Amino acid sequence: MAEDFTKSKFDAVDICSLLPTDQPTSDNFNFTCHNVTEAPLPFEPDTFDYVQQAMAAISYKMEDWPLVLQDMKRVTKPGGYIQLIEPDMYTHQLGPEGGLWRDQIHNTLRDQRGYEPRIACHLERLVSDLGLEDITVRYVSVPVGSWGLDIGHLWEQNFDAFLESAKPFLVENMQITNTIYQANTKKLKEELKGGEFKAFNNIYVVYGRVK
Fold first, then answer.
1. Which H/E stretch holds residue 124?
2. Is 160 among the domain residues?
């Protein structure tokens, strides 16, 4: 976006940098490594016309969300917009084995870390509590698995990547073995590949204007 809109200035914030080190960044782009749950955003009040946050469902505990959003509002100019993009991690229409495994994982995320995997469904209320105006809520359903053709395959890859990357944490906190984890994940994947269950996730976009 910084390359496409050269007259605008872009500031990105994340807990670590995933930017390619072998490519120069645009002059109108700046990256800051920062943990917003430990300290306020490193910007003055009323700095930005537009603030967006995406894919933070398991980055914050449920109790952190109001504080983070309030700080996003602090750095947004009056009349500016805040937009949130989050997938609802509840995968609908899984098979019986997959649904059971999903629920066990979600309960662990809630009970052991205080995360809310379905935070996307709470965004409208959280944004409303900020006192924003002209709030808009939209979502799109994304298929998981071969029944959704190319998009379904891509989202299934995202699904698999999450299950693999979260394995060490979940094995420890669910107090199960790697073998059990892999067996339950295999059952879920087999149900997806069987074609009987047309699983999908909803991705939410919620935005509003700062008074």
1. helix 123-129
2. yes
Residue 16 counted as domain residue: no
How many domains does the chain divide into?
1
User: Is residue 31 a contact partner of residue 25, using CB atoms and an 8 Å limit?
Assistant: yes
- What is the domain-level CATH number for residue 138? 3.40.50
Q: Give the side-chain half-sphere CA count within 13 A for 50.
A: 6
**Encoded amino acid at 63, one letter:** E
CA distance 6 to 23: 17
Contact by Cβ (8 Å): 48, 76 = yes
Give Cα separations from 18 to 25, 34, 101, 165 (angstroms): 13, 13, 30, 16
As a whole number of Å, the end-to-end CA separation of the chain is 26
Residue 18 belongs to a domain: no
SS3 category, 211: coil
The answer to whether residue 152 sits within a structural domain is: yes
> Which residues span the domain enclosing 148?
34-210
Q: What is the pLDDT along the chain (211 residues), one digit of tens a residue?
A: 899 999 999 999 999 988 887 777 889 999 999 999 999 999 999 999 999 999 999 999 999 999 999 999 999 999 999 999 999 999 999 999 999 999 999 999 999 999 999 999 999 999 999 999 999 999 999 999 999 999 999 999 999 999 999 999 999 999 999 999 999 999 999 999 988 999 999 999 999 999 9
- Sheet-wide strand order for 48-54: 48-54, 76-87, 200-209, 133-143
